[in-house]
Amino acid sequence: MDIIYEIRRRHLVQKQTISAIAREMGLSRPTVRKHLTTVEESKYERVQPIAPMLGEFAGQLTRWLEDELQLAKPRRRTAHRLFEGLQEIGYGGAYDSVQRFVKRWKSLHQGPKLTEAFVPLLFVAGDACQFDWSHEQVELGGMLQTIKVAHFRLAYSRQMFVVAYPRETQEMVLEAHNRAFAFFGGVPARLIYDNLKTVVEAVFTGKERKFNRRFLCLANHYLFEPVACTPASGWEKGQVENQVGNVREWLFTPLARFASFVELNDWLATRCKELAQRSHPTQSQRTIAACFADEQPLLRPITARFDGYVEDMMRVSSTCLVRVDRNRYSVPASAAGCAVSVRKTADQICVVAHGEIIAAHPRIFGRDQLICDPWHYLPVLEKKPGALRNGAPFVAWDLPKPIQLVRDRILKQAKGDRAFVELLMLAGEAGLDALTVACELTLEGGIVSAPIVMNELRRLIAPHLPAAAIAVPDGIALAMEPLANCHRYDYLLGSANVH
Q: Which H or E run includes 321?
């Protein structure tokens, strides 16, 4: 447009000839003549002709597109799937031809995509917090993993909190709420969710929902109101939806690398505090941290932490194991064959019987792993001492070095299996530290056997006698002390001579 303006100004204002304008501007005279009558800005449209390679297949492709226009959007085939369908009936052209045809047809028959209008939302301090999940890529312990990140955002102050887990199961949801409320120092009046299965079991007409019973226990404990969004209406919790993209850019790009989830979550909590120093989106003169300082006293105080476990009833196998998420955890042998309650938390597996915790293990998130406590199998060893050599709980048992040395020596002796099992049974009462000291004393003596170790162990755990002498009252002293008389046993010698 700047060239057109210059041509018209020179000719109509400065009265230059067409030849002079063409010579000075380096243009042809026909070009100058054409632009002398141009008033509006030129518009150019690139028209791509339908590729001749489609040929007779254009009609079939059109019929498919017309049929699929009646289907729900998720069920419609993509251009690539339509291309594969054409190949099955003999089409030999390129995919680009099909892609251009589909794009042009959709623009003509579906019309331009309309911009959806929204209503700006306003929240008061202490009222609402929004929740969502996202999937991120991190490197943990040298391995690339896809993790699940729980996002919380206070709607008034925009204070955020994020925490990472290996999964998005219900116990992770419960644990994430415990961490978030501890980070905020209180509980907001409402929490806004989409209709995730760990929170909502059934969606009814309007806003009516059937919430998960275990999740309602969490809400009842902290006394917040759960609010589920309208399906496919993410704008109702648009702040946390926007936060997901920002956190991916701020915290997980480039690739984050940590040794464990513990280190990762500590770093995420620190970064949430640092990012709160940014300006507030609507109160530009204040920081998010300053707005959060105003909102925090309005949150409901936390009286006690919610015990965020999910409970399942299981039967203990004959090998004293329960299976949780494709991993096996040991249970005391006394519970073999019994029904027990298995409580899963984000980082622990607890087994409960008759109202008491009988086993607790750190939770493992791999597959087909065996997590055993050797002490659970000691009653079995008492009856089956031969299992000591090849039993899975004992082969991987990391015993102190003195106990290992004594064990290797005793197992080479006759009936060494049973003898070492007896030592372990006694150590189950006295403790592994006492057995370690007893083994050290035995090794110092040079002669290693089960009776010697047991004697040293009993001496260590025997109760100590009082150092002071017992005071005896004068009134109970003997008036006449007995005299030693060995002659009273002479008759025994006489009877021995008779025989």
A: strand 321-324
Long-range contacts of 356-360 (CB under 8 A, 24+ apart): 358/331, 358/332, 359/329, 359/330, 359/331, 359/332
Q: Measured on CA atoms in the order 123, 126, 132, 133, is the torsion positive or negative?
A: positive
Question: Which residues, 6 or more positions from 480, have their beta carbon under 8 angstroms from its beta carbon?
Answer: none
Tokens of 314: 């299981």
How confident is the model at residue 51, as a pLDDT? 47
The answer to whether the CB of 316 falls within 8 A of the CB of 328 is no
pTM for the whole structure: 0.69
Instruction: Please write the tens of the pLDDT for every residue from 155-177.
Output: 999 999 999 999 999 999 999 99
- CB-based burial, 55-93: b 16+ in 10 Å, e otherwise: eebbeebeebbeeeeeeeeeeeeebeebbebbeeeebeb
pLDDT for 290-338, tens place per residue?
999 999 999 999 999 999 999 999 999 999 999 999 999 999 999 999 9
Residue count of the chain: 499
User: How close are the terminal C-alpha atoms of the chain, in Å?
Assistant: 145
User: What residues pair up with 134 in beta bridges, in sequence order?
Assistant: 149
Tally the C-alpha atoms within 13 A of residue 266's C-alpha that lie toward its C-beta: 7
What number does CATH give the domain 128-298?
A: 3.30.420.10
**CA–CA separation, 495 and 499 (whole Å):** 7
What is the C-alpha separation between 430 and 98, in angstroms, rounded? 79
CA angle centred on 388, ends 382 and 390, rounded to 5°: 145
Q: Is the separation of the CB atoms in 35 and 3 below 8 Å?
A: yes
Helix (H, G, I), strand (E, B) or coil at 297: helix
Higher pLDDT, 365 or 206: 365
- Residue indicated by tokens 């995730």: 196
User: What CA–CA distance (Å, rounded) separates 340 from 338?
Assistant: 6
> Beta-carbon neighbour count of residue 253 at 10 Å?
11
Report which secondary-structure segment, H or E, holds 367: none
Q: Would the pLDDT of 112 be above 70?
A: no
**Structural domain boundaries of the chain?**
2-36, 57-109, 128-298, 310-371, 378-461
